[in-house]
Design a protein that fits this description.
Elements (H helix, E strand, L loop, with lengths): L1 E2 L1 H20 L1 H39 L18 H12 L2 H6 L3 H7 L10 H14 L2 H20 L12 H4 L7 H37 L5 H21 L2 H25 L2 H17 L1 H6 L9 H27 L5 H33 L4 H8 L1 H11 L5 H28 L1 E2 L9 H10 L2 H9 L2 H32 L1 H7 L8
Antiparallel strand pairs: 1-2
Helix pairs in contact: 1-2, 1-9, 1-20, 2-7, 2-14, 2-15, 2-21, 3-11, 3-14, 5-6, 6-12, 7-14, 7-15, 7-21, 9-10, 9-14, 9-17, 9-18, 9-20, 9-21, 10-18, 10-19, 11-15, 11-18, 12-15, 14-21, 16-17, 18-19
The structure holds 3-carboxy-N,N,N-trimethylpropan-1-aminium.
Length: about 500
Amino acid sequence: MQVDRVLFWAMVAVIVAWGTFLLGFPEFAGKAVDRTYSWIAGEVGVVYQWAVAAATIVLAVIALGRYGRYRLGGKAARPAYSTFSWVAMLFCTGIGGGLLYWAPIEWVYYADTPPFGLEPGSAEALEVAPAYAFFHWGVSAWALYALATVAIAYPYYQRKVAYLRLSTSLVGLMGHDVSSRPFGRVVDFIFVVAMVGGTATSLSLATPMVGACISALFGIGETFAIDVGVIAISVALFATSVYLGIDKGIKRFSEINAIAAIIFAIYVLLTGPTGFALKLGTSSFGLMIQEFVRMSTWTDPILSSNFIEDWTIFYWAWWLAYAPFVGLFVTRISRGRSLRQVIGGMLLYGTLGCALFFVCIGNTAQWMDTSGELAVREILAADGPETAIAGFLSALKPFPLPLLSYVALTFIFIATTYDSASYAIAASATRGLTAGLNPHRWHRVFWALAIVVLPIGLIFVGGLQAAKSASLVVSLPLLVIGVAMTVSLFRLLREDRADLDVNGASSSKGS
Ligand code: NM2
């Protein structure tokens, strides 16, 4: 087992170049970032919409058809983890501080600059706002995660591919040695870049939010130094976790995290405007279902209000950037589950978990604003999103317990995403990592430190657009890889079809 020098140094070069650009020329970088964002979202955005719609359809075909019966690891394999542990782990890997950032305030943006040409701040806009949040964190989004999982897990278990990388998903097209061929190596490099970019968006949103909460707590102003302090605490947490090894750690951490998050959300619901939150949740959930096709295909060609570019495209890019990483991780924990269970479980529990947060947290914030208890929308417009979130949390009773719990929860959510991210990068940059081996400890900790360079740069440049742009840029090549992995998956599935017909939920095939 040795460090893969080419990939290691190529990644270091990418991070150093990106970091120097952001920290060395913040003003120029800020403008360049804005222009790049608008160009990609404006010109290629519609392809992201196609990709998400296609992923949803492909998964429905697999899950509802005969292929859904394939059991990963062979007919006799039994799930390695209980369903609760499995759901907790996949949720905490795929969801990080980002959910805690957006849950209280996403509706504000949609209500004030609404889709479908609605009047800003109108009753319709206020009902559509949570519906869109459900959509952007719903079945379509989880479909990107689930498709990556199935495309990697199927060859890994069914064809016994000996390595777990993004290129594993291309075995059906390129053969078993794809990961050592130049194309496979480029794909695995893209995987690492996507992870670094996707996680950078998360940390550069969550950090200033925690910073604002700390400022609210001590009554001090928000500064860059506080943000750097928050990053330092986060790094200390996830570097320790990845140093210790994640196999046992991540499972327990995720279970505790999932339970704490559910308790927090239900506490806010029960001690807040329970009836209003549930009514708005029900009505906007129905609205989302009713408008699902429209939301999936609406490109806003006539009004060109930028709603799609600012939100839908951004979200799809962010989910896409995370998809290979989540796919690899969920593959590892899904032995013994059928494709139908993997797809159904991810779509259902993932969507429900996110919806829980938006109903309990988002709708409570919306009620505070509507009832006049706290002018969330005005605070956001005047002082920015982080201050609005901190203001909302400070208004929850008894101050400062909910605020402190939210900060703690954010740190845990960040840690459970970033420790596995550092681990996955180290694993990808190691050669000869056969089953049961772990990448060197120094190597795992090195990546834990390296992946915060970009978020620090983005926070320094400042603004939501900078944070959003990281995911948009890195996800672009994944659109192409996504098509290739789907074609590859169907090739394998078709080859194995006869086997399924004869043996039921077939035994796995070696190479
Ligand atoms: N996604 C789920 O910070 C986070 O929540 C990470 C964000 C891709 C929108 C994931």
